[in-house]
């Protein structure tokens, strides 16, 4: 398919979407984020946002499901029909649950709460601590076996080596011997969680005299190879393929470390691409809300970032003993506001008075604003607070703007090979997704030396892997607020920028793109800055989405892409958005859709091989057909603007509960044992995409096509049906003219239907040709020239 073949859909008039849910039921703001009347009944200040939880909602009807979207409820990617009821997973607070009851939407089950999330965090920290202990201890390498034998017609080499650091899957061992071109990675063998050893079992033409095994921790051990006469050996010796290279959820800092390690270890196969648009950083200004009642509260925000001094500031409101004017005293980082009192010693300063004084006298250090949309006419109360940015990541995690990095893997990385892009964690809370890219990268690199199929892929493709598109948000999810979906950039106005709203700031990066955007009238996103699907103030406003655009622009050889999300077990492609009349973006042609299905079959079969997980047919297909509209998503941008075949993984397929006879969701952050399995199976799926890309690049055989019925005379109208030898787009004319790339294309018959048929009700000459996804044209016909070697039939219809 030619680059740029797909054009951006014609912009629709901006449609106003529904009112957003109140944050903690404190206010209601429109999508334009304008404040409502300040004359509200005074209420308590909310210093902390309401706790959230993932629940399974029972939705009585499609209309009620639409209401969820209109209210801006933070839905996960999972929707399911069960016993006639619609089940939808959502991240909600208790007040939101109460609000949903008026639409007869009720909670069926609580899936994950903060206690469970904390257990996941503790699990991760325990694994990291165990790894550190293992890796910091002096490693001991021990050869258990170094044998060769001939079994019937083939000679084999078999090694067993045990590392004292082998409990950690990040410990890798490679074998080398005289005459070997590249070190070969050993596979790690464990049983019921117990590490046994690493092994290698491969066919050999020439048996080496001795073998040296080296650990990535810097140690090595050498053994002589002796003959083995027994028959106790592992299965499938010709399929030595190392896997299992991730062992815990990895934050963005760890991901970058692993990428750097791989680039250093495999300089001939890997380079790191640094993308030009830095994130806004894992950083915030320090804040405090002084006061307990909304209309008398003052929000104080540091001018400096929290880590650059804002966290050192404190503010105290003190009632003066003697009646005098309000004044502000500054002593280093300590700000004291002497409140005005009357003759009885009662404070008479309002929040407005305090704000004005702070902004005038301490404006170099802080700014002071009203609490949310209140006027600040209430009398303040003496109090004090230390400002904080609320960020809890360890000190080694940078607070500065981050450079988003991609691993570029390939033997020849000059743009001459077909490019494939895999990118993950647009949504911060999806912890499994980066592991898919890291595991796939490790498999490519560590199997390259000895696995023919892997070498084929690396030698003939240009592979780009972005483990974390959204490092700021991901860090926030790991250390501060696990449900964080968006990045950390606050585009909210003043009245929505106090500390209690901090978990609702940010832009949904998978709604920030320029195709099918809410800014163009499509649905599935929000212009409410506190919504989980906030699309940003404008298309491509965020550096993270700009990086993806840059990557597609900079490397024009990219022909395939996979956007990796969780959870729900979906496999989807464009169109990804529709308007309020449910009119989607232009669907792929019948031939393009056939290619999507054929390639998907291969990719999903790879996923199934790991542990039998089947992505359901009902969850496979164009996004609106299997889930819901996702206006402004990145895969649509890649497909329509860049002509890239772009898919979306939703890792974490439901697990079948045999006892309850129902499917059960796994969540964004399942226990690592489950997360590991998801990473393994979807890494296999990503390798499957690379295989699709490789086969596509080798396709130089033109397609063939025919029609039914054929040329002849007919008594009445006929339905003309096209058939092709492979997925291919049909270009045709019905007026006898020569078909070109500007001619009509055969489309789908309808949603999830095969290709349309053409109704011929009068004598017609049909001219056509077929083009497969690799660009091969039937009969080598040149639509841009003057050739006549296209297909042609005449159907004579008797009237």
UniProtKB/TrEMBL annotation:
PROSITE patterns, sorted: PEPTIDASE_M14
MF (Gene Ontology): metallocarboxypeptidase activity; zinc ion binding
One Pfam family matching this protein: CHB_HEX_C_1
Keywords: Coiled coil, Hydrolase, Metalloprotease, Protease, Zinc
Keyword field contains Zinc: yes
Protein's GO biological process: proteolysis
Coiled-coil regions listed: 120-147
Keyword Zinc on entry: yes
Protein's name in the database: Chitobiase/beta-hexosaminidase C-terminal domain-containing protein
């Amino acid at each position: 398919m030619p680059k740029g073949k797909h054009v951006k859909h014609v912009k629709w008039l901006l449609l106003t979407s529904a009112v957003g849910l109140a944050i903690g039921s404190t206010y209601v703001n429109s999508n334009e984020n304008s404040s409502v009347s300040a004359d509200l009944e005074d209420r308590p200040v909310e210093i902390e946002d309401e706790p959230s939880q993932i629940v399974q909602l029972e939705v009585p009807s499609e209309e009620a499901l639409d209401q969820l979207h209109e209210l801006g409820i933070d839905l996960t990617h999972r929707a399911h029909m069960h016993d006639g009821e619609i089940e939808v997973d959502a991240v909600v607070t208790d007040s939101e649950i109460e609000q949903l009851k008026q639409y007869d939407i009720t909670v069926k089950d609580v899936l994950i709460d903060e206690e469970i999330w904390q257990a996941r965090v503790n699990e991760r920290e325990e694994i990291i601590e165990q790894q550190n202990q293992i890796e910091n201890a002096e490693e001991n390498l021990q050869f258990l076996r170094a044998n060769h034998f001939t079994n019937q017609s083939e000679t084999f080499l078999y090694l067993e080596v045990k590392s004292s650091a082998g409990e950690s899957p990040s410990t890798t061992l490679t074998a080398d011997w005289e005459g070997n071109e590249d070190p070969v990675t050993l596979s790690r063998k464990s049983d019921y969680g117990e590490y046994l050893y690493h092994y290698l079992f491969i066919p050999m033409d020439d048996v080496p005299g001795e073998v040296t095994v080296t650990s990535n921790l810097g140690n090595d051990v050498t053994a002589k190879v002796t003959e083995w006469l027994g028959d106790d050996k592992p299965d499938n010796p010709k399929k030595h393929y190392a896997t299992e290279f991730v062992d815990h959820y990895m934050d963005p800092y760890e991901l970058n470390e692993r990428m750097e390690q791989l680039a250093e270890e495999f300089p001939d196969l890997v380079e790191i691409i640094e993308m030009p648009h830095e994130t806004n950083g894992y950083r915030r200004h320090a804040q405090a809300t002084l006061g307990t009642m909304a209309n008398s509260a003052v929000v104080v925000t540091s001018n400096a970032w929290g880590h650059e001094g804002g966290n050192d500031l404190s503010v105290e409101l003190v009632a003066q003993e003697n009646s005098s004017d309000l004044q502000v005293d500054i002593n280093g980082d300590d700000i004291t506001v002497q409140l005005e009192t009357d003759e009885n010693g009662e404070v008479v300063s309002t929040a407005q008075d305090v704000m004005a004084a702070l902004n005038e006298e301490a404006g170099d250090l802080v700014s002071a604003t009203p609490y949310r949309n209140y006027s600040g006419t209430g009398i303040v109360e003496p109090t004090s607070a230390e400002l904080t940015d609320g960020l809890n990541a360890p000190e080694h995690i940078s607070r500065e703007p981050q450079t988003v990095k991609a691993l570029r893997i390939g033997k020849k990385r000059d743009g001459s090979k077909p490019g494939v892009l895999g990118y993950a964690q647009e949504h911060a809370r999806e912890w499994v997704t980066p592991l898919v890219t890291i595991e796939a990268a490790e498999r490519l690199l560590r199997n390259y030396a000895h696995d023919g199929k892997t070498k084929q892929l690396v030698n003939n493709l240009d592979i780009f892997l972005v483990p974390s598109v959204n490092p700021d948000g991901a860090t926030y999810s790991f250390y501060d607020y696990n449900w964080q979906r968006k990045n950390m950039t606050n585009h909210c106005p003043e009245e929505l920028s106090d500390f209690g709203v901090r978990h609702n700031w940010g832009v949904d990066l998978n709604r920030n793109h320029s195709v099918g955007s809410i800014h163009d009238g499509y649905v599935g996103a929000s212009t409410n800055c506190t919504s989980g699907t906030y699309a940003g103030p404008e298309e491509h406003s965020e550096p993270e989405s700009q990086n993806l655009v840059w990557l597609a622009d900079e490397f024009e050889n990219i022909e395939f892409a996979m956007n990796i999300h969780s959870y729900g077990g979906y496999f989807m492609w464009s169109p990804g958005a529709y308007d309020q009349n449910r009119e989607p973006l232009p669907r792929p042609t019948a031939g393009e859709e056939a290619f999507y299905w054929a390639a998907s079959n291969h990719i999903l079969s790879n996923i199934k091989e790991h542990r039998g997980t089947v992505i359901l047919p009902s969850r496979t297909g164009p996004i609106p057909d299997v889930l819901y509209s996702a206006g402004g998503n990145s895969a649509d941008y890649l497909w329509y603007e860049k002509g890239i075949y772009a898919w979306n993984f939703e890792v974490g397929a439901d697990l079948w509960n045999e006892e309850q006879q129902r499917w059960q969701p796994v969540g964004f952050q399942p226990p690592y044992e489950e997360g590991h399995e998801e990473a393994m199976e979807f890494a296999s799926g990503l390798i499957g995409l690379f295989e699709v890309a490789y086969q596509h690049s080798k396709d130089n055989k033109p397609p063939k096509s025919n029609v039914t019925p054929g040329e002849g005379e007919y008594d009445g109208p006929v339905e003309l049906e096209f058939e092709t030898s492979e997925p291919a787009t049909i270009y045709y004319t019905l007026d006898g003219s020569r078909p070109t790339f500007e001619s009509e294309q055969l489309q789908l018959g309808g949603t999830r239907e095969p290709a349309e048929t053409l109704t011929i009700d009068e004598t017609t000459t049909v001219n056509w040709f077929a083009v497969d996804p690799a660009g091969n044209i039937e009969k080598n016909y040149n639509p841009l020239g003057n050739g006549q070697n296209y297909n042609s039939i005449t159907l004579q219809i008797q009237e």
